[in-house]
Amino acid sequence: MGCEMRVPSHSDFDAVVVGGGFYGCCMAVFLSERYPRVALLEKQNDLITRASFVNQARIHNGYHYPRSFMTGLRSAFNFPRFIVDFKECIDATFEKFYAIAAQQSKVTAFQFESFCRNIGSPVRPAPPRISGLFNQDLIEAVFCVREYAFDASKLRQMMRQRLNEAGVQIMVNTEVERVSSARSNGLQVDLADGTQFSAELVFNCAYSQINKLLEKSGLPLLPLKHEIAELALIEPPDELRGLGVTVMDGPFFSTMPFPALDLYSLSHVRYTPHESWQEPQVVRDPHRYLEERNPASKYVFMLKDAQRYLPCLGGARYVRSLFEVKTVLAQNEMDDGRPILFRRHPELGNAITIMGGKIDNIYDVLQTLNGIHDLSRKKAVLNGR
SS3 letters for the chain? Predict the structure, then answer.
């Protein structure tokens, strides 16, 4: 924790990253290889505690996106690299299966299998011991796939170590109020406690808080959809231990290991979302709104519907639920695509907003950044001081 200290108001940075989720942490490490003075600012009391923690912990290999070929293809392309770069955080101890519903599914078993082969992700029919767990009247086919989970607690430890080794200044319990043009040069970062400092570059990686910072900074808001989402945590029945199951593709469910808490998650496309809103039509602080709503669990509804397809789920024991705000680009609400949001703000020069919808497409962000001519030129100027 040695580098977690509040800098005095006269301190300056070459690059500041707002948001200490997985994307923000990776961005800060990446930038530290190019600039000598990098700061990572997170308003929570630790890194990777919100959306990067509260999710299915799924490392995608493309299977989840049969209606968005490019997202599936990029997931399959990034998958092997991710499991090598973050191998200490990977849980590959379970078998993973995708089942295609016989009714209401937006893809057929044939389409799903063809999609997997087209993106290069391995797929084969599930053995009878697995397919026999499902309601044969409601499931068309079950496939064995290659998909893992990540341990968010181990990921936090790994990223903290990498940040410390890179010399990144980590500031937790630090909320950014606004970003503006500095009087001399570059950008001014104002914190909620009144502290100010300047930076050459500012990256807004605040996920659900992205528009909040843009609004306070006088910048145009982005078209985002926010959703209060519930992740139920269960102890699985004996039949599902060592297995992960996803029923596709429509108003169905997933249950799979949640390594950070040594439990299983249960999520349902119909019941995991509690309510949603779109910006800029409705502008509010998503985190504060979630706290005020304090939603009641819909676990019973998740379970009742899911066990129609997978009867043995009736033997699961509910432990508790985690709630978080899930944010996606409004344009991808229908096709399930998860492209990277990369937006430069010419009003402030070197202010950039970045948002990703999946943990494993971080490489697409870094590749985009690596190709920016302006940043490469600025690197040469900074290193020549």
Answer: CCCECCCCCCCEEEEEEECCCHHHHHHHHHHHCCCCCEEEECCCCCCCCCCCCCCCCEECCCCCCCCCHHHHHHHHHHHHHHHHHCHHHEECCCEEEEEEECCCCCCCHHHHHHHHHHHCCCEEECCHHHHCCCCCCCEEEEEEECCEEECHHHHHHHHHHHHHHHCCEEECCCCEEEEEECCCCCEEEEECCCCEEEEEEEEECCHHHHHHHHHHCCCCCCCEEEEEEEEEEEECCHHHCCEEEEEECCCCEEEEEEHHHCEEEEEECCCCEEEEEEECCCCCCHHHHHHHHCCCCCHHHHHHHHHHHCHHHHHCEEEEEEEEEEEEEHHHCCCCCCCCEEEEEHHHCCEEEEECCCHHHHHHHHHHHHCCHHHHHHHHHHHCC
pLDDT in tens, 153-190: 999 999 999 999 999 999 999 999 999 998 777 899 99
240 pLDDT more than 90 = yes
- pTM (two decimals): 0.90
